[in-house]
Amino acid sequence: MAPRVLLVDDDADLLNLMSMRLEAAGYEVILADSGEAALLRFGESRPQLVVTDLCMGGMDGMQLFERLNAAAPMVPVIILTAHGTIPDAVAATQRGVFSFLTKPFDGKELVRRVADAVRVSPALDPELASGTWRQGLLTASLRMEELLRQARRIAEEGKATLIQGVRGSGKRTLAEAMQKVSAYTKGSFVTFECNDFSPEELNDLFAPDKFEKYLEAIAGGVLYIDDIDLLPLRAQSRLFSILFAQMQRRQPLQRLQGGSPQEKVPDVFIISASHRSLQAMVAEGAFRSDLFYLMSSGMLEIPPLEERPEDIPLIAQAFLTNFPGTRYTLAPDAMAALQEVRWPGNVAQLKNVLQQAVMQTTGQTISQVTLRRVLRAVEEASILSLDEARRKFEKDYLIRLLQATGGNVSLAARLAQRNRTEFYKLLARYDLSTGAFKQKLS
């Protein structure tokens, strides 16, 4: 597939001239006559490079660069400038612009600069450009497009990956997509749910012999560790030793507490996920900093749905199109209503609402009235009573406190500004045992 270049200039003659030059050199060219139009074209066409004039009416080239760089910093931008604005162009390169060309420029020089920029931009081969690897991740968001570019590059390297994002945002779907563009595409995809086990069970499952055999069984595939924030510190240290050995090109693994060298680590692509901020947990002492920093070189942050409302129509229509039986659609005012809603449950909640709306629709079109009725019911059902909300907060707070202090009651009580007797009563109220949290913090 030919590399795709977006050209932006309010001079139609120059735009056409550049387009002919680049098409003759084998590039696919997308045209925009303003910065505002360029933002729309960028989201639609996902180019590998943007070439833009600096001085344009409305949004100028530098403003366009700042918008693109915030959403897609991996896509290079070349700025065209007149002689009098060379100092501005030089300053622009210091802020991240790939390079600049001074008008009038030679056509061969334009082609050379474009070739240089495309070489450092993620390639779009036919299979990847068709979207087959990312079918479950529909998006019109520049921010999500940049995330997918990063995910693809990380997957190709096969290094340990951490995906962070609120519940329902699509972390597992992203992990499954990454397998398709990795060297592990023919292996299995195995999910390990930390939430299914107690801290003691997790420590036991991550014991060196057990965990290595577990990895051997899925060698050549992907291990997806969900809710890694629940992993106890002792288990974290064992996971760190595995990942560190992988990073060292499969050097022999050493037991953390003495013992002889182990066999080489099985070749598994390990992807971890968390809906909590591991950065905050590191600061609290509840998550090992060395493990976090090792994984953070391949860290991906999925933005919540409320920060990418342009994706809502795509996701909604895709879900309704694939719904078994009748082919449903949303009335225009119903689709508009979807984009007005905050989605704390993200993509999962959106799909749940649409499913309920389908069940309450007799025809093929979901009306705004039906949709709002479902939304009201969902909102009312999700609101806890004040007592329930207080209890939930109190239990979550105690769990985080015990994780951060390694089960040290004296320290936890002091941080909570309660005496030990009162603190023990709080733990008993929520059936929390300090033994599950007692472990070394290093």
Please outline what is shown here.
The chain has 442 residues and is of the alpha/beta class.
Explained architecture:
The structure is a single chain. The chain is of the alpha/beta class and 442 residues long. The chain folds into four domains: 4-119, 3-Layer(aba) Sandwich (Rossmann fold), CATH 3.40.50; 128-301, 3-Layer(aba) Sandwich (Rossmann fold), CATH 3.40.50.300; 305-382, Helicase, Ruva Protein, domain 3 (Orthogonal Bundle); 386-437, Arc Repressor Mutant, subunit A (Orthogonal Bundle), CATH 1.10.10. It has helices at residues 12-24, 35-45, 61-71, 86-94, 107-119, 126-129, 142-157, 171-180, 199-205, 208-217, 233-247, 278-284, 289-296, 312-321, 332-340, 346-359, 368-382, 386-405, 409-416, 420-429, and strands at residues 4-8, 28-32, 49-53, 77-81, 99-102, 161-164, 189-193, 222-226, 269-274, 299-301, 329-330, 365-366. The strands form three sheets. A five-stranded parallel sheet has the order 2-1-3-4-5, with helices on both faces. A five-stranded parallel sheet has the order 7-8-9-6-10, with helices on one face. It has a two-stranded parallel sheet with strand order 11-12. Strand 1, helix 1 and strand 2 (28-32) form a beta-alpha-beta unit. The longest helix is centred in the C-terminal third of the chain and has 20 residues, at 386-405. Residues 125-130 and 250-263 have low confidence and may be disordered.
